Automatic annotation (TrEMBL):
It comes from the Bacteria. CDD domains: HAMP (cd06225), HATPase (cd00075), HisKA (cd00082). The chain crosses the membrane at residues 138-157. It catalyses: ATP + protein L-histidine = ADP + protein N-phospho-L-histidine. This is histidine kinase.
């Protein structure tokens, strides 16, 4: 506004000076056409009724005509040493702040003897009045602009601080353990991204909280069941009237439940070690065919006993970098699932293929399949498709979670595809190792 104010005033003063010079040029033209005393008086009379004054002098400085009484301010300008003045005229005094007049001069030549200058004067008090009026307009415009700016800033600050306050309240709730918060996303800028990030964090923490509670409840259930069996049958075996065969049968049940409890604790211990990165992996490059063939021979009797055909499809020139004992645990776990959930006279296949430097190992069964709503959660801890947790299917819902962690620790990925009553396919993918790699290793 200050810059604009200065530019407007400067422009207005220049306009006044150009106007004075134009009036002086107009009087010059009249004098050059018809120079006479009546013409001089006519020019003086014209300027007498305007807010400007004219003084016409000859080349010696004698005043020929004046529209007003020549005062000290005018004499100061008339006494200036004038250099050669261009025909279009020139500005003699432009400082309106320090002088009483602004002035211009224009030369005229009617004939050789009738020469002189036309001086035009404008009182700076008139200019100051004009500037004061401009100042009032600018002050009003500035006040109006500031008012609109304050109103705009108020609403903008409200618009900016409202989501920030909402996010602050949400983070306060999160810090107190309340993860069921909703942060509205009202924009797609940085604030919107921040709100979305906080909402994602809240959703993830809420999910982890629910998962932890479900985990603790599931562990309590899994521990309570074998302990209940052990305690119940231990109480029965203490009876003195129990015959030897019944006592032996009950002791077998106690032993089986103890083994079951021991397996659960082992799986929990392994999972805890993987979570804190203390699970040791000893990788080496192995020939995949011989590795899978050994597993195939190991589990073939169990599949044959259930009248399930077990096939192996693998070329003998595939090598992968794995921990053999840990990876055997992965394959055995997947095969155990295929055995549990497949019917008689179906086929389970261990299939290894290579494509673009990647090796895929698939366990394909023709079992009951997994419902579509359960597939995304199949690798979650303690998640079981059978919500009743029937004991005849075995397992604790930890096997596939451990399988996924074991595969990822060794640098691989695992995925699952399944259709109800058609079967399930677990696929593990690793980067292929060449025969040269195995030799150098």
């Amino acid at each position: 506004m200050i810059y604009l104010h200065n530019k407007v005033i400067h422009s207005r003063i220049n306009q006044e000076l150009e106007s004075l010079k134009a009036r002086g040029n107009s009087h010059r033209d009249v004098l050059e056409i018809t120079y006479s005393d009546s013409t001089l008086k006519h020019i003086g009379l014209m300027e007498y009724h305007t807010d400007t004054d004219v003084v016409i002098t000859n080349t010696r400085g004698d005043i020929l005509i004046s529209s007003a009484k020549v005062n000290g301010g005018m004499n100061k300008i008339l006494a200036k040493n004038i250099p050669q003045v261009p025909r279009k005229g020139m500005v003699l005094q432009s400082s309106w702040k320090d002088e009483r007049y602004i002035a211009t001069v224009t030369p005229f030549i009617s004939d050789k003897e009738k020469k002189g200058y036309v001086y035009m004067f404008k009182d700076t008090r008139d200019v100051e009045d004009l500037i004061a009026q401009l100042n009032r307009h600018f002050l009003f415009a500035t006040a109006l602009l500031l008012l609109f700016m304050l109103i705009t800033i108020y609403f903008l600050s409200k618009a900016l601080t409202r989501p920030l306050i909402s996010m602050k309240e949400a983070t306060t709730k999160l810090s107190k353990g309340n993860f069921s918060v909703a942060v509205p996303v009202r924009s797609h800028d940085e604030l919107g991204e921040l709100a979305q990030s906080i909402q994602s964090l809240a959703n993830e923490l809420n999910y982890l909280k629910k998962e932890r509670n479900e985990f603790l409840a599931s562990i309590s259930h899994e521990l309570r069941t074998p302990l209940t069996y052990i305690k119940g049958y231990a109480d029965i075996t203490r009876r003195k009237d129990l015959d030897a065969s019944e006592r032996t049968r009950y002791l077998e049940i106690i032993h089986d439940e103890s083994e079951r409890l021991n397996r659960l604790l082992d799986e929990l211990f392994n999972m805890a070690r993987m979570d804190v990165n203390t699970f040791t992996i000893s990788k080496e490059i192995v020939q995949l065919f011989s590795f899978l063939q050994n597993i195939h021979e190991k589990v073939l009797p169990a599949f044959a006993n259930e009248r399930i055909q077990l096939n192996l499809e693998c070329k003998d020139d595939l090598f992968i970098d794995i921990d053999p004992s840990r990876f055997e645990q992965v394959i055995l776990n997947l095969l155990d699932n295929a055995l549990k959930y497949s019917n008689e006279y179906t086929v389970t296949t261990i299939k290894a293929t290579e494509c673009n430097g990647w090796i895929s190992i698939s366990i394909i069964d023709q079992g009951v399949g997994i419902p579509p709503e359960d597939v995304p959660h199949i690798f979650d801890r303690l998640y079981r498709v059978e919500k009743s947790r029937a004991r005849d299917t075995g397992g604790f819902g930890l096997g596939l979670s451990i399988v996924k962690q074991l595969v990822e620790i060794q640098g691989g990925t695992i995925s699952v595809k399944s259709n109800l009553e058609q079967g399930t396919c677990f696929t593990i993918t690793f980067k292929e190792k060449t025969n040269e790699d195995s030799s150098s290793g």
